[in-house]
Amino acid sequence: MKLKKLFADKEIQSSEETKLIQEKTGLELEIVENENQIFDWINSAKDPVLKGKTCLYLTQNRGAVIKDCPGTIHYTCCDYTILHTGTFCTMDCSYCILQAYFHPPLLRYFVGKEKISESLDSIFKQNKIFRIGTGEYTDSLIWEEISDQPSFLVKQFANQNNSILELKTKTVNIDSLKSIDHNEKTVIAWSLNTEAVIESEERGTSSLTARFKAAKKCESWGYKLAFHFDPVVIYDGCIEEYKKVIKTIFDYVSPKNILWISIGSFRFMPHLKPLIEKRFPDSKICYGEFILGLDNKMRYFKPLRIKVYKNIVAQIKKYAPEVTTYFCMEDRKAWEESFGFFPETEGELGKMLDQSAVEHCKLKPIS
Amino acid sequence: MFEKEQFISIEKIDLMDKTYRISTDNNISNLLESIQTNGLISPAIVKKEYDRFIIISGYKRILAINEIGSNKTLVKIVKEKETREETDFFCAKLSIIENAFYRELNLIEQAKGVSLLKKSLSIEEISLNSLFFFNTNLNTKFLGKLLKIKSMGNSIHKLILSKKLSMNNAILIKDYEPQILNAFINIFQKLRMGQNKQSEIIVNFHEIALRDDIPLLELINSSNVSEIIDHENPDENYKANLLRLYLSKKRYPELTKAYEEHKKCIKEFKLEPEIKLDPPINFEGEKYSLSFEFKNIKEFEKHVEKLIFIQKNNTFKNLFK
User: Which of A225, A287, B105, B194 has the smallest number of Cβ neighbours within 10 A?
Assistant: First the structure.
């Protein structure tokens, strides 16, 4: 989605970050006295979600920069840490929860590297492993084209030893990451799906092949990699197509450079459904066999999920038996039937992933 | 407000103009009898429109008088306001109030009323003054729904009035093309069911058609559906349940199968009807639920004995795999 408007709060209009973004976008900077002006403008559009993707609001993060991933007690969470650097996305995936998460949906970039540095410094001082990502409320690398935020973060993480930064994306915006001394503390992760799902559900994202090529480049620059099959979408013939995607990963990159591969089936808050139906009338993604899960999200009927999971896991194990593979938000039965074990105790999955991070990224927590 | 009451010729009243007609009741037999016995107690209200009159309130009274064969009738004529808009708004208010403070308006009548007021007021203003207009409080969301059903055809209005179609479900089907709309109307005319079951049926039809790339009309008119609707059993509820089950099975084949298999297993145990063994909801969680009712210790012991007995049954053990 091409940016058409650039707004900024008055107090940050002269910051270097603001100037850089203005220069890179080539847009006129409109100063905002009250953010409700932008909200009203977006909400008045026929499709506020789409409008929110075309205007960028430069503001300050007035809340926490570091947050815990919001897991639920019913499904096993990986204890991830979120670095909150911006919100929303310029790409337009039918299944994206961000469409219904922000009111109004608005592309926000948080100006203020000092605040990020301060927050990270407190993390870097701790005697604990952290897996930190910026891809929870936005795509990590959409910002690479218009700011130096991704490279700034890579550099921040390069100078410490207890945390890894995961930049999760569906783009191929990696050029600025090429010559950075990242010290193996940054993992570039791609969200993967089948060609059919990318074609029908992921508007404006990079093709699967482009993502693999970008991964290969990052690998050649010494970065560690990760892949996320999330959301897995169930449709006729999907198992063979997911298996094909998995095989292709290893045509491009080596398993030894992959920190982890996660798998999570499509799940959504019920109120997302009418939005998808309205915004993506050709999409059939909502019409799978969904039931209301224990976390009040719609999920595929469990035996259907497990059937697909088993095949995906088996295929990953076939090509990369050593790669740490895990489920994002699944229960005991899904784990046991697919992996043969269940990380039952609290924090067990997190520790499994920490271990992979330690091994691949030479982490050494301060003792 | 009104000019002096006066007699006007029935011929001068435009009986075809139903702009201010609120009532959905067309039956004039009781009114006819009353007028014949007691005369006209309350004259109708009309508005002068060039050389004719249009009825603001009292449509059935005028029809009854016409039916009796009288040439003239006593009416109250609305005084013209400064602007045409003001007069129209005044007439709209009158037409609603005359009905709403006399009896409870049904949904279609409320819809007609809102539609009339909407020409002069916003939805928020109507809501704010709804007690004054409709003798009841109506919120903006509800008023919005009324406006939607107002735009629908007579056959939908009839279904709503006969309580065979809820307002929410009427809105759910309102944007379908006429043929599909008629197909739904046909189903709901023939099968009686509650609002939730009705919306489940509409949604399942819609989603199956989209998922399977089948034209919706083809699905509704398919032989399987027709067989259910025209089933020889005259019980509408029975047929409605058959249709609901058929669609659920088609929409959620694996889930339905799992419930059927569970039911089959339970049947094998020959449990007394007082004992209920339910799987996790949607087979998602891990917790099964067991409950039983008993009247005395003897019944309690009997149920416990039965449960201990089935515990050894392999089918029972397989339930949890």
Answer: B194
